[in-house]
């Protein structure tokens, strides 16, 4: 994992937390998200996704938090494989972005899929919920060379 230099005190909203601490918390949230996606853990996903979530799929379609939870709850989205090839992150105060690159396969909308994907996720942090995803974008990557 690579990330930009950090370590300055964060004075936004009076939290005073150092960016490196927030980076560690964000990395943990990303890992919990991946685990929840692998197992379709709807309760964990519910805590990690902001109610205002807007996600854009590789075909340009828009999805909400409820769309994602319903897909996992009903079996409309099942991951057989989610393998991280790379992860970068950046934190600026109470905003974070994760850049996941990896292999994903499973079933979606009744059909099998397998692809290398890039997820770009924008996270917000608050004291009540911790890190939650507000926005996400998914792109298909070419096979590795």
SSE order, as H and E?
HHEEHEEEE
Mean pLDDT: 89
The total beta strand count reads 6
Helix content: 25-40%
Written account of the structure:
This protein has helices spanning 19-39, 42-48, 65-74; strands at residues 49-56, 62-64, 77-92, 95-108, 111-126, 130-141. With 145 residues, the protein is α+β, with helices and mostly antiparallel strands. It has a single domain (15-141), classed as Nuclear Transport Factor 2, Chain: A (Roll). The protein has a six-stranded mixed β-sheet with strand order 2-1-6-5-4-3. The longest helix has 21 residues, at 19-39. It starts with 18 loop residues before the first helix and ends with a strand.
Give the secondary structure arrangement, pairings included:
Layout: H1 19-39, H2 42-48, E1 49-56, E2 62-64, H3 65-74, E3 77-92, E4 95-108, E5 111-126, E6 130-141
Parallel strand pairs: 1-6
Antiparallel strand pairs: 1-2, 3-4, 4-5, 5-6
Helix pairs in contact: 1-2
Summarize the structure.
The protein has 145 residues and is of the alpha+beta class. The chain is built from three helices and six strands.
Describe this protein with a few key phrases:
alpha+beta, 145 residues, 26% helix
């Amino acid at each position: 994992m690579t990330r930009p230099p950090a370590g300055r005190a964060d004075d936004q909203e009076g939290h005073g937390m150092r960016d490196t601490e927030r980076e560690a918390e964000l990395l943990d949230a990303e890992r919990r998200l991946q685990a929840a996606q692998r197992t379709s853990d709807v309760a964990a996903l519910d805590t990690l996704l902001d109610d205002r979530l807007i996600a854009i799929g590789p075909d340009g379609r828009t999805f909400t938090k409820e769309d994602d939870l319903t897909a996992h709850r009903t079996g409309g989205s099942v991951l057989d494989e989610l393998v991280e090839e790379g992860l970068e992150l950046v934190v600026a105060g109470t905003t974070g972005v994760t850049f996941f690159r990896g292999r994903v396969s499973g079933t979606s909308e009744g059909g099998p899929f397998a692809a290398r994907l890039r997820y770009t996720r924008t996270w917000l942090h608050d004291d009540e919920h911790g890190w939650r995803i507000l926005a996400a974008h998914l792109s298909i990557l070419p096979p590795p060379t």
